[in-house]
Amino acid sequence: MPRRQAAARDPSQLVDSLSVRQQDLTLLTALNNSQCQYLVIGGVAVQYFGCREFSEVNYPDVLIPASEKSAQNIQIALETLNIVSDGARTRLLRPGQQLKLGLPFYAEILTAGSDLKFEELYSRSSLAEKNGTTFPIVCFDDLLMMKRKIVEELRKHERDLECLTQMESLEGGGNR
């Protein structure tokens, strides 16, 4: 599949400016060795496009397709890292799921929701390399779209919280 480099900055500067913890490179290497198809979408991707300082901690949250093959490959990768996650494989079969890895990995593995076509996202991704580890990063336009969607969801939750807080201040606090 063709891969497009980021247009936001000079590609030679992109990888040089990445701050990726060694533990996270170990995780990405395990994903590669287990033949996982994934995209880096978290803080590492944001930093890749120049939106975070080098000194900030950035985690390589990854997006995978919701499929049996992906779930199996993720399980193999996690086992090589001695990570046991009960029910992870079953959960990763469904769209829109999230698996938090925990220490020493702060990364999350997310399955593409039904509104995200993973193959299309993957076809537009770029390859980055840091300290010998190569990994696919979501393209700028797709990352921007994902971040806008998250912010939209957060605003909805903020409005809900504001409404509930107002109701709480009323006598009786709504329909309790």
Low-confidence stretches: 1-14
State the total count of DSSP E strands. Answer: 6
- Cα separation of the termini: 55 Å
Element order, helices and strands?
HHEHEHHEEHEEH
Major β-sheet annotation: 4 strands, mixed
The shape, in one word, is globular
Mean pLDDT over the residues? 80
Helix vs. strand class: alpha+beta
Compute the gyration radius: what is it?
18 Å
Strand content: 5-15%
Compute the number of helices: 7
Cross-sheet strand order for the largest sheet:
1-2-4-3
Q: Into which percent range does the helicity of residues fall?
A: 40-55%
Quick summary:
It is built from seven helices and six strands; from the N terminus they run ααβαβααββαββα. It has helices at 11-16, 22-33, 43-48, 68-80, 88-91, 118-123, 140-169, and strands spanning 39-40, 62-64, 98-100, 108-111, 126-130, 133-137. The strands form two sheets. A four-stranded mixed sheet has the order 1-2-4-3.
Topology readout:
Layout: H1 11-16, H2 22-33, E1 39-40, H3 43-48, E2 62-64, H4 68-80, H5 88-91, E3 98-100, E4 108-111, H6 118-123, E5 126-130, E6 133-137, H7 140-169
Parallel strand pairs: 2-4
Antiparallel strand pairs: 1-2, 3-4, 5-6
Helix pairs in contact: 2-4
